[in-house]
Hints:
CATH topology: Rhopdopsin 7-helix transmembrane proteins
CATH architecture: Up-down Bundle
Number of domains: 1
Radius of gyration: 27 Å
Number of strands: 0
Largest sheet: none
Number of helices: 10
Structural class: mainly alpha
Distance between the termini: 94 Å
CATH superfamily: Rhodopsin 7-helix transmembrane proteins
CATH class: Mainly Alpha
Amino acid sequence: MLWLIGLCSLLGNILSVIYRLVYDRERLKLGYGVFVTNLAVADFLMGFYMIIIAVADAVFRKRYIFMDDYWRNSYWCTFAGILSTVSSEASVSFLCFITLDRLIVIKYPFGQFRFNTKKALMCFACAWLLALIIGLIPLLHSGYFKNEFYSKSGVCLALPLTKDRPPGWLYSVLIFVCLNFVAFVLIALGQWSIYRNIRRSSVAGASKNRKKDLTVSRNLLLVVSTDFLCWFPIGCIGMMAMSGHAISGDVYAWAAVFILPVNSALNPVLYTLPAILGKKIAGDVKLHQEPKLCSKLGEKYNDIYNMGQLLQSLVLKYRNG
């Protein structure tokens, strides 16, 4: 499962970024194009984290009990923990921006408010800076975290899914449970508002551009919904653990290697594949319509030419008396 999800996440997201940078550059001039591209970069980092854990699993298999201390306190484990934290928090930020962008587009269809390229770049810079700060704070404040924040488990995650109170557990609860839970509540409210506006527009009728915005919003609703289903269980498990419920090690392992990262592998399929298919269908329709259009233009040209010939002959007859 580690190898499968990790490789799917790596390949899917790098192909998604290449597609948007090379074949779909027009969308990078829009806010949601910038945010979706950066979401793919964040998911790519999660795939890299999965590959690091998969390699460690292969290297230390059948002798991990002797290497546990060495691995959890190694630079690679710390690096993997930072990658997963930065990736997850950047993903949350970009999902918030995606939801906000689609909500603005739906509520203000005449362009009163928009995320232009400059504003989108400022937002994505702030999102990455915030994610990096969150990931690096445990390394910068060794007095409080005691260099044990990312060495809590063999998968190098700092998720607060146990009753233990290791160094930095309060920081972990604030970030992975409270902050992410509040963010996804806001995302859920934003998506509900988008859904209501879509229903209203569907009933009232919509223009061609409006329908395009609604289609994009429906696709992104699926992306955000799957991310919500990914993080919501982790938040609930964390709150249960903090309230004293015993969480088994199997639940922690599945949350670390399946629930948390699986969305990184699914996102390219959810938002890039529909864009590629939609572009291909539009191209096929255009190619199908162009011969008919050329044929109609040719018929009109022939009619005009024949009419010109008729007028020329009438003028000659008039001049000749």
